[in-house]
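To fix ideas, we quote verbatim one protein's residues and fold tokens.
>
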Amino acid sequence: MSAAPSQDPFAGGDYVVRSGVRHKRCLNGHDLDIAGRGGGWNQILDLPTGHCELCVEMRLPRAQWLEVDLRFRGETPASSAALLLSRRPPVVYGGVEQIILQLWGTAIADLDVQTCDTCRVGVLEQVRVDAAYLRRGIGTVLLDAALARGRGYWWSTTTIADTVPARAFWATQHLPPDTVLGEPQRCPDMLGADEYAI
């Protein structure tokens, strides 16, 4: 990944990101239909924001978040949003593709994922987030982007590192039912594509 942009808004703030979908709960676990949900716009980052009314009133941390559109650059109208998703497609059918989150054009996180539209199978591989952006929801946004492209697929992951950060990340994810953790379940198309891997 590239170095952080020279004007890094994350360095001076407590920005947290979430997928730009309607969430049931806030980052502190409150039911937003009861606690109250609000929204706004971050002028600097040119991104929509969401917040929990109860968290704001209680002055809790992580009361507000930035919302990232799960569509890739090129799938959306031209935008000056600071955070955009892009992708590096697989070289062969069933191969590994990369989903990348960019801050003003600089990659700050990426996820490797292997999918097969024919077999409706997906394997979540490596999630990498630049150290300056850890614990801000960025890995979850990448995961949400991958899962959104494979709705109804049978998902699995590659081996999960036995570290506290890795276990903490995967323990907080809302994965589809029957997702197999730590044992990739590749279809024949994926296994064939693996032969072409460099």
User: Anything to note?
Assistant: Residues 83-198 form a domain with the Aminopeptidase fold (CATH 3.40.630.30). The longest strand covers residues 106-116. The chain has five helices and nine strands.
